[in-house]
Amino acid sequence: MLKHYFLFIILFFTFTFSYAQDNAQTNELINFDKTELSKKISNTKIPWIKNSGQQNPDIAFYANTFSGTINITHSGEILYSIPADSTNTRTLKESFITTTPSENREIKGEKQSQTTVNYFIGNDPKKWQSSLSTYQTVNMGELWQDIELKLNAYGNNIEKLFYVKPGADPKNIEINLEGAKKIKIEEGQLIAETGSQSNITFTKPIAWQIIDGKRQEVFVSYKISSTNTYGFLIEYYNPDFELVIDPLIASTYIGGGGDGVAYDMVADATGNVYIAGYSIDGGYPVTGVAYDITYNGSADIIVSKLSFDLSELLASTFIGGSAGDTAFAIALDTDGNVFISGTTNSSDFPVDASSYDNSHNGKSDVFVAKFNADLSTLLSSTLLGGTDEDNATSIAIDANNNIFIAGYSSSDDFPATSGAYDESSSGGIDIILVKFSNDLGTLSAATFAGGTGNDYAKDILIGANGDIYLTGHSTSADYPATIGAYDESFNGSIDVVVSKFNNELSTLEASTYIGGSNADYAYSIAIDANSNIFVAGENSGGTFPMAGTSYDDNHNGDVDVIIAKLNANLDILLASTYIGAALHEQANTIDITSEGYVVVSGETTSENFPIEGTSYDNSINNHETEFSGASDIFVCKLNNNLELMLSSTFIGGENSDFSYALTIDSWDNIFLSGYTLSENYPVTGSAYDNSIINALGKWGYHSRHIYISKLNNNLSSLSASSFMDNSNGQDISEAITIDSQGNIFITGYTGSATLPTEQAYDNTFNGNKEVFVCKFSNDLSQLLVSTFIGGTNDEIAYDITIDDLDNIYIIGDTESNDFPINEQSFDDSFNGGTIDAFLLKMNNDLNSLLASTFIGGEDNENVRTIKINKDNNIVIAGSTGSRDFPMAGSSYLSLCPGGHTGFIAILNINLNSLISST
Fold first, then answer.
1. What pLDDT was estimated at residue 129?
2. Which domain does 370 fall in, by range?
3. 123 and 791 in contact (C-beta within 8 Å)?
4. pTM to 2 decimal places
5. Which of 123-132, 627-636, 748-757, 881-890 has the highest mean pLDDT?
6. Domain shared by 193 and 318, yes or no
């Protein structure tokens, strides 16, 4: 008789958590059908990563699924992370009661995957690992005589395949579930009771054989042989033919437990989307049985790349250190490299020796990181800061691929360069503006800008001639407004400020206040084809100056959106308008379409927010929910003179939703990113990730989840929309940009460790708050690559920009003295205080840190914005309290007077030289 191999395949594909919450509100939120939503990510193949020292030594292989990490130990166990309660997770350990000696079993990877994985943890490049081996399948070996077990990983599941050779007995298969109080069979399913808020259900198996070309069903069921041990009962099969056993498909959510926010995003020339922000998520399975791994609750930076339709995660990576790291800004250079910037508190934030500054300087530092386009290589990263707090909010790249970062600092010793416009802090918190070389090895220029009050830079852009524009707000009556500017005098409370610097940051060419007697804030800046400058923000008093034929010249309620248009010399207010309704509105982002239309986005709590045109959504989404009064995202499109609202729309779910990043691709599609607390935030069927794991985070509040949404030009259609992560981490994106291919890059900071990070520069969550950079396809269907950047403490990226070669520059703040700094950087040492600024340069694939540097002094630095000038140098701006902030060139002001003083710095594109600062 012809013998056939007897293939006994058990597909645990998938199991579900059954929540038993005491809180009725929680039940209402999570009790909806997620099966259809999870099918897409359930079917996505995830590679197994071989542990080469980057993980706990007991781990042989692991898979970073979209819902958590699954670990295979050297001793042949499988570990699943499950929620224990609202604040903790525990591990369910699945082990196999084998009948073969261990020396006959070898756990090995099979079918090598195309995915490459890189680890850039801390600031010692010798400990970085790149191109780690990944596999489609893990072979556990012969666990029973002539029975071999193989494992595949998918979006949020694993697949077990038992291969039973002729003569072997499948009844020998016994599996123990350690960590379950007991197991039972209900309606054919295997239930593992954990004694916590979640049980695990293994779905009912089915079985069949193909005999004479026809499928014949075979009865199979679970059997329990002892308290926590199960196997399979198989009846009436032909042992000469292959037998397949397959549980029914169901949805599952494994692990998680942090928040996520996307702060910025950018699209490349092909339409792929990059996002950056932060995530809070311990990610590693925790149990009192097997391991004692303590999650420290901090945030890591997360960077991800998605396809243009958001259906595919192309790349994703964490970057950061052991403390909190956040990316607020992201940009692409002309080479497609991805730059993120933000803030880090990690002394071990990953920086390389060639970067400008590879040592943590103070409480929090600015960081800038550069990745290649697929996020697999950290090309360069740098810190920047003084001994106090330094924060980067924005990043931009000029025509010569110089990296500019703007932010603010309380460090008197923030490293302003000699010859910069202002080399000294003016007191309180000052704006800082910094220019790096593309490789982040040179701080080309760094300057303060500010008065004796508190001054904050929130956004930055590069003008047509390489001039640097920044906007923010100030409480200083002596902020440096220039003679002949639109408004030379402080108006009271808090005023919007707009300033223009030359590319070397040595000259303040123009600077103006805009405001009334109440509080006025600016958060974003844009420029049209005629070099007119647009700023957007919020006003709380109704006295903001109106100009032109405004769409709305009346203040409407509590807080209104404000938009202002100035000429290039900042001496004429060409137009301005309010947008608002009865309650609270604020605009966080502004951009200009190719036809000169003005697009703003933010959030509103007003049901009567003005909706115009054929909008995608014409009603607020939380009106009749328990979260009535929560915020919805709005997007508005106006004509160039701010006279007409051409279209507007709500976007949101039943809870609060926030928009922090906006970018427009070459086809005038509009991309948004931020975070949502809404489980029912609108996502499209083809999206990369169209579900959220849990309603509540680790601390009992609703978790923040990163989203990316794509609207058509007239705001009538949601072309694509996707969540960024499937954890409960805190992830915030701060900045967004688009490369020459249309790919979208976002950056910010993250506290989530479970973001998929294949092919990234750094796919290990390093600490509390970490910079991330994400690259998406233009349609948001693919996260092309995503990376972390950071040290052991906190980092935040605030801005990002791209040079002509599509390299990415990112600025931010770091508290990590081990922030990843390249060799030969401008400043490779953390400077003091608790925060240093940092500047990073990465390749477009986000797998290489091309350059990175610290920038700072003995106090704290905060950098918020970055641009690239016409000479291809990097201009950054922020604030510092560091009297020893590095000065270079002919500084306007070379000594920080104390408190927080704004600075501007220019570095070369390699980030190894500070050209000028003030």
1. 64
2. 260-421+430-917
3. yes
4. 0.57
5. 881-890
6. no
